[in-house]
Amino acid sequence: MIDLRSDTVTRPSEGMKAAMMRAEVGDDVWGDDPTVQRLQATVAERAGKEAGLFFPSGTQSNLAALMAHCARGDEYIVGQAAHTYKYEGGGAAVLGSIQPQPLENAADGSLPLEKIAAAIKPVDDHFARTRLLALENTIGGKVLPPAYVTDAVQLARQHGLATHLDGARVYNAAVASGQPVGALTAPFDTVSICFSKGLGAPVGSVLVGSRELIERAHRWRKVLGGGMRQAGVLAAACLYALEHNVDRLAEDHANAAHLAAGLAGIDQVTVQSQATNMVFAQFPKEDCAPLEAWLKERGILTQMLYASRFVTHLDVSRADIDTFIAAVKGYFAR
Ligand SMILES: *Cc1c(COP(=O)(O)O)cnc(C)c1O
């Protein structure tokens, strides 16, 4: 099957599985797993932070970070479209007693500075205490403008706020902008990075930050049930991904551009945006369900909605994109 639904659908390669088989392990709840330690140190070093912490998922990594920054009754400023706010079951509020202050994202994914400034609450017992600004990079596939990130973080600092980056796809942002990942993570106090998206590992996220913040997140990871034992088998996949699957993200980005160009050539389709490994496009509403079924019969998995997202990844080739485009054309020509 050609699966364009998400970059989470990648399967571990033979090389990755071999690395997992060879992994040296120990009980990581006791801090005994040498492969987990190596992953945490490697990711922290590349991100320019003191420490790293391995999590089973990006959702848990983000939540533990928010809980490390904010106490009960504190507030974090976040985008309406941000994963931590919209797609994580409201975990910050539900499990962290942290009040979200969502703001409308601008078209480029940023949160306008004047809106951030206006949302920061004065110190007053009537208000939740505004503690944290959380951004996301990439967001909807888009790389946040670096000058914007600098300004937003500076604004947060001026008001005494900490900063967190949901960097689930920060390696896509780094490759797309030709910057070392450390340049994109440097402004933030904490950054969560996913290995189970375009990097192709089956599981895993690493949170990086200062030793003190990571120690706090470590306690919350245990509370949230994220303490894993011989997790080196998983960390080995992430280390393999760092070594083999970062530079090749450029191929996914080129394939997404190729996919967008193909769809743009079809009269019934409107391409809304393409950035890094994502393409958003609009189809006639009445065609969505039949087109999704048509594609599935031809071995292509999509999630065809009025505004559909197509995601490229290491299990999708240039030829697969051509097959997909030909199938969409075939549907409209039938
Ligand atoms: C996927 C994703 C997460 C969460 O990661 P999971 O491992 O699926 O829990 C967080 N943030 C963003 C931007 C993501 O795309």
From TrEMBL:
<dbReference type="GO" id="GO:0016829">
    <property type="term" value="F:lyase activity"/>
</dbReference>
<dbReference type="InterPro" id="IPR015424">
    <property type="entry name" value="PyrdxlP-dep_Trfase"/>
</dbReference>
<dbReference type="InterPro" id="IPR001597">
    <property type="entry name" value="ArAA_b-elim_lyase/Thr_aldolase"/>
</dbReference>
<protein>
    <submittedName>
        <fullName>Low-specificity L-threonine aldolase</fullName>
        <ecNumber>4.1.2.48</ecNumber>
    </submittedName>
</protein>
<dbReference type="Pfam" id="PF01212">
    <property type="entry name" value="Beta_elim_lyase"/>
</dbReference>
<dbReference type="InterPro" id="IPR015421">
    <property type="entry name" value="PyrdxlP-dep_Trfase_major"/>
</dbReference>
<feature type="domain" description="Aromatic amino acid beta-eliminating lyase/threonine aldolase">
    <location>
        <begin position="3"/>
        <end position="282"/>
    </location>
</feature>
<dbReference type="InterPro" id="IPR023603">
    <property type="entry name" value="Low_specificity_L-TA-like"/>
</dbReference>
<keyword id="KW-0456">Lyase</keyword>
<comment type="subunit">
    <text>Homotetramer.</text>
</comment>
<dbReference type="InterPro" id="IPR015422">
    <property type="entry name" value="PyrdxlP-dep_Trfase_small"/>
</dbReference>
<keyword id="KW-0663">Pyridoxal phosphate</keyword>
<comment type="similarity">
    <text>Belongs to the threonine aldolase family.</text>
</comment>
